[in-house]
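Quick one, T. Sequence first:
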Amino acid sequence: MGLPRSGKTTFLAALGHLISAGEVATRLSLYKLEGNNAYLDSITEAWRRCECVPRTSIASETKISIHLQDLNTNNRFILDFPDLSGESFEEQFSSRRCKIDYINNYEKEGGILLFINADRCQDGITHLDLYPALDTTDVHETSSSEQDWSPKFVPEQVRLVDLLQFLLRPPFVRRLRRVAVLISAWDVILDPDLLPIDWLARELPFLYYFLMNNPELFNFQVFGVSAQGGDIRGEQRAQLARQLPSQRIQCIGSNAEPHDITAPLIWLNGIE
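Structure tokens:
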């Protein structure tokens, strides 16, 4: 689950490489793949070359099931990764409708990966911040710059909470769900001591308090993830390209090893 440019496809590409390359130690390994293997191969190859992973459009949405095996216990589980475009989630928010397949996926047992991008402006302005800048001399005068309301004006964290609230009403089954909040592009965070959960509380407090105050509905953990390892659109790209691909990956969170982005999946499945 995640809005446009939140890191879903890049995470999938990095995961596809990590669990098959064997370059660094991981708790989970690839058992088999089901679905559009050609699509996964194409985005993984772009990721390996330090290129921007093609964003998923509504027209190119696909579904991949990754069967994983826990190397410590040999237990197996399935990661259903419907690579939905962020626009699909935005459309769900604005139209109040979703596909039958989307409902069916959430009838299954398991948890949710919720993606947020740290490398963009968050929703930090309130009406108290705006009021001093407003000209209130004639509140009845219509401004020529006024715009009709649109769902795109709704703050990101409000839209994310709304997507989670969908799961609390029919036709969805209301139950306790595990949610791994993945803060992508974690490499842009300059404070090495900042924990992902503290970033969430500071930058997206509405989403944070929604999760915190509904423990009977959402059991959540927060992870900081950099699937690319840095900015591949600038001078840093050459340095990143010289690294072992798996070692570019960064992951911070509960029981996470530095390069192992399977940690959120392990937590979602309740593996100790």
